[in-house]
Design a protein that fits this description.
The protein has 181 residues and is of the alpha+beta class. It has 2 domains: 30 residues; 109 residues, Alpha-Beta Plaits (2-Layer Sandwich), CATH 3.30.70. The chain has a 3-stranded mixed sheet with strand order 4-1-6. The structure holds iron/sulfur cluster (2 copies). The site of one iron/sulfur cluster (SF4) has 15 residues, from helix 4. The site of one iron/sulfur cluster has 15 residues, from helix 4.
């Protein structure tokens, strides 16, 4: 919603125990041990023989927090939800976003991107564009299969980046939960 204040959930100050890293080390070792013994039990009992995903025949369902390539949210009429404020362009550490704003004279939104390009050969899927966007207009998708034979094919234009809002519902709900929006 335009003008809405979004409170980003930040971590509380770390205590001495957390600063010692010991609980995190134990937590990490517990996760590793859990996977190890679960796989070992599956292997010994014969219940689980394959430990590798047979890509591309098999695909895994990534968790909600997974960050694939950033895409633009398309509204029902196909227009981008983006208002070309430029915050994501500013926040992007690799400067791979290029926005040219334009005016929307007959709309309460007033601004829209005339150009919105992302150079995927430089994008590092960090998600800072998504985090900085006040409009939920750019989100990280599940898409990772974006290989190309040359750099020019990695330049994604607005038309290539637009994805209907309904198809991004899972990610949008995750973001609202994560940032308590
Ligand atoms: S994911 Fe990170 S590197 Fe990629 S466009 Fe967004 S801010 Fe830039
Ligand atoms: S995607 Fe979001 S942050 Fe980036 S220009 Fe559009 S409204 Fe602003």
């Amino acid at each position: 919603m335009p003008g809405q204040v979004i409170r980003v959930k930040r971590r509380e100050k770390l205590g001495w125990l957390e600063r010692s890293y010991v609980p995190m080390l134990v937590q990490g070792l517990a996760v590793t041990a859990r996977h190890f013994f679960r796989n070992l039990a599956g292997f010994v009992t014969g219940r689980r023989r394959d430990f590798v995903v047979q890509f591309p025949e098999e695909r895994i369902d990534h968790p909600d927090a997974f960050r694939g390539m950033p895409v633009l949210v398309a509204l029902e009429d196909g227009r981008p939800r983006c208002v070309a404020c430029g915050l994501c362009e500013f926040a992007c550490p690799t400067k791979c976003i290029d926005i040219v704003p334009a005016e929307l004279p007959d709309s309460p939104v007033e601004r829209t991107p005339a150009v919105f390009d992302i150079d995927m050969s430089r994008c590092m899927f960090c998600g800072l564009c998504e985090e900085s966007c006040p409009e939920e207009a750019i989100v990280m998708s599940q898409e990772v299969e974006i290989a190309g034979f040359d750099r020019s094919s990695m330049l994604f234009t607005m038309e290539q980046l637009l994805v209907p809002e309904a198809m991004l519902d899972r990610r949008l709900r995750f973001l609202r939960r994560e940032y308590e929006r």
